[in-house]
Design a protein that fits this description.
The chain has six helices and eleven strands. It has about 250 residues and is α/β, with parallel strands linked by helices. The structure holds adenosine monophosphate.
Length: about 250
């Protein structure tokens, strides 16, 4: 079966506005292109690009996503304390170092702006991404049956945002060298963030303060991680997930 990668991005006056990508069969191309166009044209743009490429490398098929758990807290301090304890347990990094890294994400990790991709941190607490402004972007991941999984999530009260973040995070965490992930959105009104471990995707609300325009992701990796292989996997290995898992 042939699969295609479809990537959309739009910009206005050279500033990034929106972007989305899918991996679909030939028979789904037409609908996908139209969906991505709708998505990209919701906000004003002066450039919109849709790129279709046949996938020639071997696709990694994954049976299930990480298991979703949702936890609600009284405020961001409590939610971030939970995240800190969990990350300390998973990575062995001391809380002081973790706190500093998380603070960077909440205040603009790319010299006071949002990074385009994720920060990579080893278990000594050192940042090791190749470019501190850009970070690393996880791409080439989707569901074999996106609509069915979307319905399943929506019935449980989640949104499409969770569908995409869960796929991205599942691709990250099945890589042996990635130990955990921390994420908050850069949307000022979206306060739910997550911490992912090898088994769970913990949705934590509220993980950021309302109105904060900053967001970002941290990927925690083993100390002996081969950075080139990691980049190759995150950017280029196609991953298709069959089913979502909700606790
Ligand atoms: P979002 O979940 O789309 O609101 O993104 C939140 C933050 O995560 C962004 O500001 C980026 O720093 C980072 N990010 C977004 N997309 C990706 C991606 N595909 N891979 C890695 N990091 C990303």
């Amino acid at each position: 079966m042939d699969y295609f990668s479809v990537k959309m991005r739009s910009s206005l006056e050279e500033n990034h506005i929106s972007g989305h990508e899918r991996i679909v069969k030939a028979s789904e191309l037409e609908n996908t292109i139209s969906e991505l166009f709708k998505r990209g044209s919701r906000k004003p743009f002066d450039f919109l690009n849709i790129k279709i490429e046949k996938i020639n490398s071997t696709i990694l098929f994954i049976k299930k996503t990480l298991k979703i758990k949702t936890l609600n807290f009284n405020n961001t301090r409590e939610a971030n304390n939970f995240a800190l304890n969990l990350l300390q347990k998973e990575t062995g990094i001391n809380q002081n170092t973790l706190q500093k890294l998380i603070k960077l994400i909440h205040t603009g990790a790319a010299s006071g702006k949002n990074m385009r991709g994720a920060m990579i941190v080893n278990l000594k607490g050192e940042r090791i991404e190749k470019d501190r402004e850009k970070g690393i972007r996880t791409t080439m991941v989707d569901y074999t049956n996106r609509e069915e999984n979307k319905e399943k999530l929506i019935k449980k009260g989640f949104t499409e945002r969770t569908l995409d973040a869960l796929a991205l995070s599942t691709k990250n965490l099945i890589y042996p060298d990635i130990v955990a992930e921390y994420c908050i959105s850069d949307e000022p009104d979206y306060l739910t963030g997550y911490v992912a471990t090898k088994r769970y995707y913990f949705r934590l609300t509220p993980l950021k303060e309302k109105g904060n325009l900053f967001g970002g992701r941290i990927y925690f990796v083993k100390n002996n991680t081969d950075i080139d292989k990691l980049y190759q996997y995150l950017q280029n290995t196609p991953v298709l997930i069959e089913d979502i898992e909700i606790e």
